[in-house]
Amino acid sequence: MFKKNYRQDNGVAYLLLAPIVILLTIFVIIPFFYALRVSFYNWSFYQDSTFVGFQNFYMVLTDDLFLQSIWVGLKFALMVVPTMLILSFLFANIIKNLGSGFASVVKTSVYIPTIISGIVASVIFVFIFDYAGGLANYIIGLFGYEPKAWLAEVATALPSIAAPAVWLGFGLTTLIMLAGLHDIPKSYYEAAELEGAGTFVRMWYITIPLMRNVILYLLVTGFTAQISQFELSLVMTGGGPLSETTTPNLYILNHFRNDVMVGNSIAASLLLFVVLGSISAIIFRVLNSEKAIDG
Predict the structure, then answer these.
(1) Measured in Å, how far apart are the chain's first and last C-alpha atoms?
(2) How far is residue 230 from each of residues 14, 73, 111, 163, 226, measured CA to CA in Å?
């Protein structure tokens, strides 16, 4: 009887898993191996493909622009992700201490940028950073500074693109942080208060350690998303000036649009996949995901 029920349970489990396994096979596994195969060919829509081995990978790895795009993506992620995490963490703590009615309004308001398209956000910030009538130059003008060509100068172009990226991701990150804060038992804070621990001590020894898994998740997804970002640089700067805002995906897009042979683009995509996987592995290695103490 036990074996019969066991087989039935397994059958139900396999049946429930079948749709996702089929979808993953069709849209992830098969395309991945097909892309891997294509990367070894001079592949084109307009002529027969020829096998070239690792030549496409060699061309990408010896292309200074690709290596620069990886560096640009890393710098961009380092600008956006820590800033977004710190601001979201602080703002989530503020929301947590608000009244339930007002907190609901704030949570709804802060989430609005998340549903805005990256293209729309790019256009908004292009106007903000406009040289002649932009809000950014108006604000610095109040302090006596000369207008700046934010999107045309090497020193300011990438930070100017990072600003809308922080704005777009701030709402969702804040809500995830808030969920993590609500998951921490109040008894921990009450015990710490009885011992005379201040706000900073409670945050350092209770809140941050118990938020480890949330922070780990946001770091991995944040770095992956920001290094893969291309909409903002495509619309706001076109990858300029001097390719200082050409992210890896924009590099791949430019090659795909301009090259007759797309093997180069496929090889670059696979190399970017390796880079993203390596960064995620490093983050996991450094932070070490752990089960919550109260689990």
Answers:
(1) 34
(2) 39, 9, 22, 14, 9
> Cβ distance 77 to 227 under 8 Å?
yes
Q: How far is CA 167 from the centre of its chain?
A: 13
| Selection from 255, 248, 257, 256 nearest residue 230 by Cα | 248
- Ordered by start, the domain boundaries in the chain are 59-287
Q: Which two tokens stand for residue 85?
A: 């995490």
**95 and 177 in contact (C-beta within 8 Å)?**
no
What is the distance, to the nearest Å, from the Cα of residue 140 to the centroid of all Cα atoms in its chain? 30
The set of residues, in sequence order, having a beta carbon less than 8 Å from that of 74 and lying 6+ positions away, is 227
- Map residue 9 onto helix, strand or coil: helix
Buried b (16+ CB within 10 A) or exposed e, 243-264: bbbbbbbbbbbbbeeeeebbbb
pLDDT band at 6 (very low <50, low <70, confident <90, very high): low
pTM tops 0.85, yes or no:
yes
DSSP secondary structure of 153-188: SHHHHHHHHHHHHHHHHHHHHHHHHHHHHHTS-HHH
Question: What's the pLDDT tens digit per position in 52-94?
Answer: 889 989 999 999 999 999 999 999 999 999 999 999 999 998 8
The Cα-based distances of 45 to 40, 58, 177, 259, 262 in angstroms read 15, 22, 46, 11, 8
Contact 28, 34 (CB under 8 A): no
How distant is the alpha carbon of residue 49 from its chain centre?
35
Beta bridge partners of 261: 44
Task: Answer whether CATH 1.10.3720.10 is correct for domain 59-287.
Answer: yes
